[in-house]
Amino acid sequence: MDTEKSILLIEDDHEQALLFKELLSLSTEEQCQFVHQDTLSRGLAHLKTNTPDAILLDLHLPDSQGLETLDKVCAQVSYIPIVVLSSTGGKEIALDAVKRGAQDYLLKETISGPILSRVLCYAIERQQLNNALLGQKEDLSRVLSSITDSVWSADIIEGKVVYRYYSPAVERITGYPREYFMSGLEAWSEIIHPEDREQFLNKVKQEILGEAVKHKYRIVRADGEERWVAGTTSPTLGTDGTVIHLDGIVSDMTERHFVTEALRQQSLQQAAVADFGQRALIENDLQALMDEATSLAANILNIEYTKILKLLSDNTRLLLCSGIGWKSGLVGYGIVDAEKKSQAGYTLLTDEPVTVTDFQTEKRFSAPSLLTDHGVASGISVNIPGSKKPWGVFGVHASQTRNYTSDEIHFISALANTLGSSIAHHEIMKALQASENQHRTMFETTKEGIIITAPDSTILSVNPAAVAMLGHNDPAGLIGTSSAFLYQNPQDREPIFKTLIKNGYVNNLEVAFKKADGTPFYVLISAVVHKDEKGNPRQLEGFFVDITKRKEAEENLELFANATEQTADSVIITDTQGIITYVNRAFEKMTGYSQREAIGQRPSLLKSDKHKKKFFETLWDTILSAKPFRAQFINRRKNGELYYEFKTITPIMDEQGEITHFVSTGKDITESKLAEAALKESEERYRTVADFTYDWEAWIAPDGSYNYTSPSSERITGYKPTEFEKNKSLLLTLIHPEDREKVEQHFENHFTDEKVLPIEFRIVNRNGDERWIEHICQPVFGSKKTWLGRRASNRDITDRKRGEEMLRELNAISLVVWQTRIDGYRKIWHPCVKRMCSNASKKI
Questions:
Q1: What is the CATH number of domain 5-143?
Q2: Residue 750 vs residue 54, higher pLDDT
Q3: CA separation for the pair 813, 816 (Å, rounded)
Q4: Percentage helix, strand, coil, to 5, in the chain?
Q5: Which CATH superfamily is domain 148-252 in?
Q6: CA distance linking residue 397 with residue 377, whole number of Å
Q7: 634 pLDDT exceeds 90?
């Protein structure tokens, strides 16, 4: 022993006690404290107040005999190493003593100093190790008992899992006692949710093969509650490389699972809404966008049925225009009543989302047949916003009862709001695109020359007609040059330009232009100034037609024939019996019938049955009386598609005044008709949204004073809101004199209902600029029908008015040009043509 030790000897023989002390002192150089007690009771009493490093214990004492003596000492101080001393005994007693807690066993007759010293030293060291291990074991036990996760270990015997240990936490997690699971893997697999059991067992097979596996699955506790658990396993390999032992941990992650799932769903929903919003900005196909919205809702919410219902124009029905999960043939045709008794109808009456947890217990409304036929049990419905009323309803439904979270409701609401904004945007853009297409088509196909210049007269754009009339081969020869070089006499330009800048337009001015080769020709010119938001000229747009004396009749006929082949308008020539003798390429493109198919047929080939018999009677009465007939036709193309056409049918007469042929010219106005309808619907539907954002809003009291004026009043009129609120007559002083009377009558009306009352008029703003105003006001009544005043919105429509004027002028010019060409053809036979052409020129 290397350090001083304390030894307790319990021995009734005093001589032997002295001997042991002497042997021990002779065998070691270190000091040893040796305490002797001659009875067990005295020894135990000593141990109550002292802790020796080792105990030498005689089994045969006056007050105790045999191994019971050892048991009594171990019971009191199991942590102190004990070396048993005996005068007699064999191997069995020695082994039994060690099993009962002794560190060693010595026969007294064999004891020597070195043996005694070595035995005591080893006993002390072993006990110290045992004590350390015991402490670690106790610490581990306390840790395992305190943690919420369950730790387990198992041996792999002949390919089977044999559990050796489960920590106490398994009882809290499962509700079953630990002993329940010691029977084997079957006990644990029995509590696993049936849908997850096969996956769990497959992973156990992987564990047995030596793979470190992570689990996540559901269990059903003893009380029937479903919980989510996660587990990890670490294998121990034997010398042959096979798995002989598994250690694992099982954690109850139910709350974490649902929190994580909720966060994941929230993240998915937010990402989906953001992505859908981006798609909505670029998606041109509205039906595809609605289909994407319903599919997105079904995938994100993991729900069987989704739908988009469009409120029809009669306000009593909703059309299922997109959806997921419905029976074949319903999407695009299914109808739902918009009455309050259905969930969709009820939703239309409220601005809040409407949720149903269980239709069986729902009292506010009943499920329509669309839902009951599909076994729907629950759902969410939200309005798709429109301007004055909801555009429709976005809904999701499940076949089971379901408690919908606020995140799920917000997700559907966000999709509906995004869809509503996109629908509004699509409607407006559709109308604008149609208008732009119409303008572009007119620009490209019209026979009038169109030149667009910068304020300094630099040519920016020219249409094909202008290029041709000016004798150029392509626009490149004109673009970038000055429009001043177009005039035959440069001095003619200055007064026209000054008038244009001053008034903003010029109309029907006759002037001489020159072609690229210097050849002069006369044109009838009109022009308009396009200004920026500050009122400064941005572009100048000029329109002109060649009014140079026409060639002889033969040349006019050839020009007419060429024009009919090149024009975008349909041309049909028939004999007096109505048999088609000629059609141009535009007719083929417009109708789908080739020249070969059309010639020899009658124009009734295009009949749509949309006109009454009286319409055709009037047509024939008119043209047989040698008068042109003009009307809007609804015809049918070869493929069965209906289209709108504005048609002029002109009789052609010979020198004797007899009708020989009829010439029909037609313009396809289908696109403009559809655009007009779409624009009208868009304006009506989204007027409220547009009117109360950028426009000048006002609240006018019954006495005419302004309770409120929005800041946009200053942008439109130049006067601040406070100036209107101080002077209720200020607006009347700004109104153009020619419009003041009708505006005063509008303001003096007695408002008896809540109709929206529109009016358009001009004002002169603070800068002296003339602006067009679209004024819309609506009476506001109290709960007892008391008139509270008017809510008004004023929009600056100056640019629109100028554009409309320009389009009217273009249409007039186009009509005159066509009439002039046809009249040129008729001139051969009818001497009155000169007078008609002269009158048409005067109109231009």
A1: 3.40.50.2300
A2: 54
A3: 5
A4: 45, 30, 30
A5: PAS domain (3.30.450.20)
A6: 7
A7: yes
